[in-house]
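Table S5 (text form). Sequence records supplied for joint modeling of the two-component complex.
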Amino acid sequence: MEISMSITDEELDERLGRAESRVAFDMPGPTIERMLSATRQQAKQRRKIRFGVVAGVVAFTIAGGVIAGPAAADAVRSFLAQSPWNPKAGGEVLKGSEWVDTGASDLPLYVDSIYETFLPLAPGQTRQSVVAEVSKSAAAAPGLTQEVGLRRSMERDVYVAWVCEWIAADNAHDQLRGTQAAAAISEAPSWPAFMATDGGGIVKSMRIWSHRISQGDRDAAEEVAQIETLKCWDGVDRQRGIGVVVNEAQK
Amino acid sequence: VSSDTAELAVIRAVPTMESSLRALMPDLLRFFLWRIDNREDAADCLSETLLVLWRRSGSFPSEPTERRRYAFGVARRVALAARRGKVARHESSDELVEDLALSVVQVEPDFDLQRALAALGEKERELVLLVAWEGFSIAEAGSLIGIRPDAARQRYARARARLRKLLDPNDSGRR
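The corresponding structure-token record, covering 426 residues in total, follows.
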């Protein structure tokens, strides 16, 4: 008979504690200050790109002149009021997220500057492809949107790519690919822009679907594909199933 | 809230953000040193994390415990990106890299523990380390890696049981 041996909980805690204390490094104060200062500078540089976007709106309005009229003037005042340079006015849909003009010529540059490097790209995706896709979609409807909306679009782009990847894996009976895709889908509801813009139901729905997908439920993936109108959707109407999830998420 | 009060809040938010980051930096660096093989990359990860946190200062929680959890949530994502080779080089971390080269000493590394930790799945390992080294509760650690509290507790217990077994000196044949 085999006797299972193991160390005790106390011994394990001691080993972990000892290992932690063995990396001895105190960050020098001057290094901390210089890194903070550099971060501040870098953040400012990114804001300069945003300023370019603001300038684009102003230039457009000036060029529009009389034709643009009062409505355009209001739009500019509103944008400047809600920018970081005039926090008194407030009124942003999501506090702390700036407004950007999706019609500005440097939009792809801006989107690239706020690209979220942690996003687990699906097979076939690259940072460039995500930035290009989001910029293209946003530019298709010129107007003002918040930065968080663009970040959310990037997260959505990656999320739906994984849903299609899961469906493709299921078609190919490729369990490894499916597991990988399900893992990314499960993480998606905790991505910051999804969380930040959630009114309470969307993230919860995503969690319900991701749980079902991780259990191998093909209908769950197809329901997401249907509501997101993805090319990988099989075309079968699952409105009823979608309704069940949406109702569940509202509870 | 009057506009003056709102402006004051914005002005105050800057030093609060900076002082929070200042306090968090050593812990965040340690987090990366344990998880990223290359010290240069660990320093870059810290710079990237600071930049992300700064950029999202609007959504930085006001409560210190929440701030810490939020910061480590960002750090974890940056570490995952770094493992996929997707963290940018930051000039701002050059000085830190030099400091690290001169100062970081790992006395008598516990290779058996490192091997045992490496044998765990990524999420199980993170659960154990976030609790043991970063001082988070199991539920907090679970939320950082996207696991519900009850599931986190189960996986944490399983991971520890596996570590205890792997670290048993009489059990080397099964490693």
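Note: Chain A is about 65% helix and 5% strand.
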